[in-house]
User: Fold these one by one.
Assistant:
Number 1:
Amino acid sequence: MKVTVSLIKADVGSVAGHALVPEEIKKLAEESLINAMETEKIIDFRIFNAGDDLELLMTHRKGVDSQEIHGLAWEVFKKCADKAKEMKLYGAGQDLLKDAFSGNIRGLGPGIAEMEFTERKAEPLIVFMMDKTEPGAFNLPIFKIFADPFNTAGLVIDPSMHSGFVFEIWDILEHRRVFMRAPEELYSILALIGAKSRFVIKRVYPKGGKLPAEEPVAVISTEKLYQVAGEYVGKDDPVAIVRAQSGLPAVGEILEAFAFPHLVSGWMRGSHNGPIMPVPFRYSKCTRFDGPPRCISAGFQLCNGKLIGPVDMFDDPAFDYARQKANEIAEYMRRHGPFEPHRLSAEEMEYTTLPKVLDSLKGRFEQL
Ligand code: 13P
Ligand code: 13P
Ligand code: MG
Ligand code: MG
């Protein structure tokens, strides 16, 4: 029987600037989703915060892009944003960019990662939630998980995944997509996804065999807020869902990709590059220079649509080294102050508040 896992998120307001979703707001979201579970709209749910982003993880039988499920998420975010306004939280309603819900939450501000698949005999599920970064931050780890034999031993030694995976890559500027096969097209895949602010991995598919080729095994949210709002309104802090084991990368192979704190954009005012730090839930609040960007991970087993978990996957001293490394890189990057490459490239800064500053200098320039 098929199950749908939907992870829908929005920044509805936070306490002490962009740091944290307060408990009152999470409680309010929980009440609404308990109600939705009792009326059998959804099978199960969990609520998280990744820093200042409110995350709704829901399981149900309604498929992806369900009006009912998207409507539910929209209602929850609206209610929480109203409460956030009442509490005078920072950025109350930040990610709710449009007023009218018309059947689908896409294009209204929130980020969405959802997939429908046949639940296996044992279905391990790993959820990732990032703050202070953008969808392209998932390119490197997702590539490593499903295509790099130095990360994922199973690509080499497990016959059920030896043939590799198919990547669905979106060009988020030109609004088009391409399906590419690994390992056959590894170098071409990298030629695209290395440009992570433009080309983002949207989904990964198996090549068939043990698992149906049309059912995704990983999905990433790719919404870009500035494209909805037409101006900078905060970063598009992304989420991802990855299925594990039995023809797929092992849980440990999935997590291994986060042992390297690679550079991502989105730190401070969405305008700086910094390392992504894998942290336990309790450290999911960005304070130093509103960062550095970070990622939490929740592990589950699915049982007929019910969620067994979460396990706080980065709450492991084995990730201390990645965190220490991230701190060293953060310190090094910070010493650059307003200089690139700490500050984003001029091209990427077009979507921030910098052009307004540059505008004021326009008349001062003399022709050479
Ligand atoms: P267990 O033997 O503990 O089930 O682990 C198998 C495995 O493949 C871990 O990566
Ligand atoms: P968020 O996108 O997490 O709201 O952060 C915005 C920001 O500008 C932090 O400095
Ligand atoms: Mg915010
Ligand atoms: Mg955020």
Number 2:
Amino acid sequence: MQIFTTRKGLRDYLNSLENKHLSLGFVPTMGALHPGHISLLESAKKHCDLSICSIFVNPGQFNDPDDLKRYPRMPEKDAELLTKHGCDVLFMPEVEDIYPEKPNESYDFGHLDKVLEGAHRPGHFNGVAQVLSRFFNILRPDRAFFGEKDYQQMLIVKALVKQLDVKVEI
Ligand code: PAF
């Protein structure tokens, strides 16, 4: 498994593969990987030529700074697990690399982010959208895989992809 900690490193690598026309399957995560993540990786491997997982604890989607501080971080263990399950590429960028400046774009998801989890976590889905728009832009994946357990998030991601007009199948 190739590991990249900068977007430039990852982009250079993906550019070097461009003439191979590989389809890219992306599994975004915040780490602390469990069997659900591994099943998404298995889908990415099944449907795409190259599987890429990201581990990035995205500050923008935490309402409570203490939750962000307490969020479990175990990159070595996660990397071991991904290697064991045949992931091709792991992307683990620093916050400054993804957000050189504080992000301020805001998305309109209508009713979708005002109900259920969104009602209790104002700004949470906007933070998810901010980070995914960056990742889609950096990786340009053909497909991206999300757990159906987070059904509201999945609907928001589908709406985001429409708004951004990016060619990624969710
Ligand atoms: O579901 C998650 O773990 C996160 O919301 C995601 C999609 C990785 C974005 O940070």
